[in-house]
Amino acid sequence: MSHDEHPDAPGPTAAAVEVFEAERARLTGLAYRMLGSLADAEDVVSEAWVRFQRTDPSTVERPAAWLTTVTSRLAIDRLRSQASRREDYVGPWLPDPVVTSVPGAVGPAPFEDPAERAELSESLTLGFLVVLDRLGPVERAVFLLADVFGEPYAEISRAVGRSEEACRQIASRARRRVREERADRSAADEHLLAGLVGALAVGDVQGLLDLLSPDVVLTSDGGPDRHAARRPVLGPDKVIRLLLNLTGRVPEGIAMEIQHVNAAPALVVHHPDGPIVVSADASDDGRVAAIRVQLNPEKVAALDTPFPGV
């Protein structure tokens, strides 16, 4: 498959537009999982489209595979360029929250099998994305392409510039790391999240202690412009103290609702200073093991429109 480009080629044909539009949601879903930023994902997919337009269609045997390869390479490059930005970031970094419909239905999924659709949704949850963020750029791309999007290793090899055998080894290592970190975790369901919110609303400390796992961790991302804990908060006592403090500072009458964010329930607080998104993970004993509070105005801006990917 050639990747020769022809800058002087005529504009896109109707067939090229149709091919790209059929792949756009899948490409956006891949790029977003890679980057944790919807704006960056859409930039990457737009650049892939520009390159597709400039390429002689006679040299592209499998357009979907070509677009996947280019999007993956661009996302890897973008991740590497993000490294310096991350070093200067104020406080913990969390992925952008995106609005989805309901768990198991994150858009026109490329898989019809219910189990595969469920896996696709799980890979979009904020807890899963936090784990992915601990993988290196190539490791992340290989894992997503192999385990989430079901790409053959021959195509993955072309996308990341490694041999098929190396890609299999990379996927195996990444799979092991993800499973170890997510083995006893899943996105909190609406009942557990509502219980947490209700206990906070009435200041029920014992109720909160009953709901929280002994090793609960709270991470808040306010970016440079919004006040938030600059380090993860560990343990039930400290987490409860912080949550009650935050709850006490929310003005009366503020609208809040549980929405499906990243294919799981999340509390969205419509604060005058900008939305606040609270999501959680549950441990295998049904208690809250992790809480994420997202306040960064640039990141929560993605809540304005439904997620355009799968």
Short description:
The protein has 310 residues and is an alpha+beta fold. It has 12 helices and 7 strands.
Rounded to an integer in angstroms, the radius of gyration calculated over CA atoms is 21 Å
Major beta sheet summary: 7 strands, mixed
- Total strands: the figure is 7
Instruction: Please indicate the percent range of residues in DSSP E strands (runs of 2 or more).
Output: 5-15%
Task: Indicate how many domains the architecture comprises.
Answer: 2
Shape: elongated
Tell me the series of helices and strands, N- to C-terminal: HHHHHHHHEHHEEHEEEEH
Structure commentary:
The model is unreliable at 1-7 and 103-109 (pLDDT under 50). A hairpin with a 2-residue loop joins strand 4 (256-261) and strand 5. The chain is of the alpha+beta class and 310 residues long. Helix content is 50%, strand content 15%. Strands 1, 2, 3, 4, 5, 6 and 7 form a 7-stranded mixed beta sheet that branches. It has 2 domains: 14-182, no CATH class; 185-304, Roll (Nuclear Transport Factor 2, Chain: A).
Give the secondary structure arrangement, pairings included.
Blueprint: H1 14-35, H2 38-54, H3 63-87, H4 114-122, H5 126-132, H6 137-148, H7 153-160, H8 164-182, E1 185-187, H9 190-201, H10 205-211, E2 212-221, E3 233-234, H11 236-248, E4 256-261, E5 264-271, E6 274-283, E7 288-294, H12 297-300
Parallel strand pairs: 2-7
Antiparallel strand pairs: 1-6, 2-3, 4-5, 5-6, 6-7
Helix pairs in contact: 1-2, 1-3, 2-3, 3-7, 6-7, 6-8, 7-8, 9-10
